[in-house]
Amino acid sequence: MMVGARAEDGMEQAPVVAPPQKPVWGAPRLPFDPLGVVGLLALMALWWALSAFRIVTPLSLPPPGAVAEAIASNFFASPYLANYHLGDGGLASNLEYSIVNVVVALFIACALGIVAGFASARFDLFRALADPLMLTAGTIPILVTAPFFLVWFGVSRSAQVALLILYDVTIVYLFAQRAATNLDSTYIAAGRTLGAGPVRLIFDVYLKGALPEVFGGIRIALAGAWGLEAFSELLGAPKGIGRVIQGMAADMDTQMIFAAVAALSIVAFVFDVAVDAAFGFLTRWRRPPRAFGG
Amino acid sequence: MAEVQLRNVRQVFRRSGGALVEAVSDVSLTIRAHEFVCVIGPSGCGKTTLLQLVAGLIPATSGQMSVDDAAIVGPSPERGLVFQRDSVFPWMRAIDNVSYGLKCRGVDKAKRLEIARSYLRRVGLGDVETSWPRELSGGMLKRVAVATVFANSPRVLLMDEPFGALDYVTKLQLHQVLLDLWGQHRQTVLFVTHDVDEAMLLADRIIVMKGGRIVDDRSIGLARPRTVESLAMPEAIAHKEVLLKHLGLGALVQQQAASP
Amino acid sequence: MKLATTHRLAGCAVTAGLAALWQIASILIPYESAPGEPMVPGWQIVATHTFLALSDYWAGGFGVAAVAQGGARTYAGAALAVLSNSWDTSLRLFTGLLLGGAVGLTCGLAVSWSIWSRRFVALPAQILRTFPMMALIPMFQLWFGATFLGTTLFVAFAVGSIFFTGAVNAVGNIPDIYVDYARTQGANRIQIYRSVILPAMFPELRSSILLSLGMAWTAVIAAEFLGAQTGLGQIIVSSQYFGYVDRMFLVALFLLLYAAITYALFERASRRLTEWMPREAATRERLVAP
Asked: Does B20 sit within 8 Å of C288, measured CB to CB?
């Protein structure tokens, strides 16, 4: 994991100084590679063209302008949505419901997953018990449990959060376990010889060292969580973006469906970018990954 | 400074296939205070295991180990260890790495930063104390590791082929750094290496291990500071010839070698 | 004892333990969601009453009358119901998987032909990563109907996006040195593609294959939950409407079994594709007291 260019050692007698290197991130990692924006705009143009030239009916594919207008006019308050028992807060309050579920579930899942993952890396017995549970849960479609939660918790927030926690925990567990296992044992030995007790070892060495990989897992879990939340709401929820889609689908209002999906996907993207930036800052001590191109 | 005593130490490992391997067989050894001891030997001779035992990182299968009559039960900053691989925590800046041991012992922030700063300066890294380890070269990281260990005022210094991964020039620079720091208090040192020249440059006493046992124990009486000239003296060459023969490199020695 | 066997035994032990826990829970939780329909049915109920009840979902044929038309609940009816609905679900799954895989892979390869096109799709691909795929199910059902076509195309879309981003990433991660080496030997673009790019991207593609299998199962079940007329997912949802937790449980078990089997088969098959990769042989040393 220690790959990357290093500064040269300097002179023979004078203090050796190396200019701090700026991290070199390959183009695709920055969210705002200009060519990427061009690509996105090209897709938008294609979307507009498909509806503008009547290649597809506006009912099947509402034009981007109409969708944007639908988002804007229904965002903060929407008598239209209120008619569907979706609350007075418009798209915003439904988005808030979904966002809160995703975030709360992620927090709980991180706490559980990191503790379990680290424990499984450290204690073989725990790993023998936890691995079959977590790893099979990782391969089966978690979705199958959604109707069960609906029966057990009813049409409530708990059904959504329970499903998300189940999904997030299996991912975070796997990444935490891998991170703890991959941590170079030299660091742990060094910590011990420097006098670090078990608590310090966990927080100063294991946790800090494993953070980059765990963060990667958290990002992956978050990426999938949005769709899962929307789906759980589609099955049955008091409110939320998925619930909005369900209401709109019943009436074949494709424009509002697109508006809801677009709003959620924008939120998901913004969260991803923000979380990536935050994690990047917290682990700014990392050697930058090798960037390949060509 | 401290005297290290080993009595009938034996260390057995079980390989993943199930076979038992005796890495250290019945080693008895006394390292006197202030002595700089090098342990050399071919790969797999048990020298690294011996060091890990003295460090307290692994418990001995049988035998007694003590420092000044206090039994070794686990790792401690009193027996500082410099590793071969990078042990500098990448997630802490250089100065935080050097002051980490002091932090574990509860030294207050201002004091421990001051001590860390002074040691970083001693190893020539005064200007990079706030750098992340990823910004430092291999040689610089090794200096940080050495500074870290010395900052804890160890009574015994353990070094596990610390400079093995460095290039020739950097290695020689690090020798000077080490000897400079060691010269101040002359801690007891147990230095493991496979490099005979390195051992000749650094050690008061060289122990040769083979197959988990000690097969030779020689006092190196060369005067310090040691230079290229001192290594070319007849008694130095004589030592080296015997050591090379122990390592199975007798072909490099002329047949009419002077007896030790 | 070898580590692998210990793990397998532990896996069996955990499964057995969970089954036992379920049985204990069925005794301790006597609640019923409807008269005669326990919320946590014990295994004895699942094997008899529940399985028989599945014959409700057999529409009649092969000499077995439909329950809805006055026929009795029979094991034959139940078996036929399970088989035909499993067939429906599997057909949608594999058709979608193959279609999505083929289209996604070709598009991904086409795009990664040159670095410029790869940079063009970088931002859209990143948006695709976090896109709430399953929110689109109602759209697909509106466009293509709620049975075979809509479900299959949704599965294809979900799988296709995974293969697309996977292929683009895999090609981007191939070390330059392999391509440079081929170029110094005089290979043209097509030859480089065939002899370097395709084989070198296989290992990373393997993880995309496994990921997309999981996604395919999720997609097909999700689509069936939301409005199919047949299929195992549909049975679960219509049972849930009436609170028949035992039927949900049994059908879910079938689904999990199928998913586990396909996953194991895929893993084995894809392993052979990546046999040339150097593998780290880990040897663990353990201390033993004499």
From this structure: yes
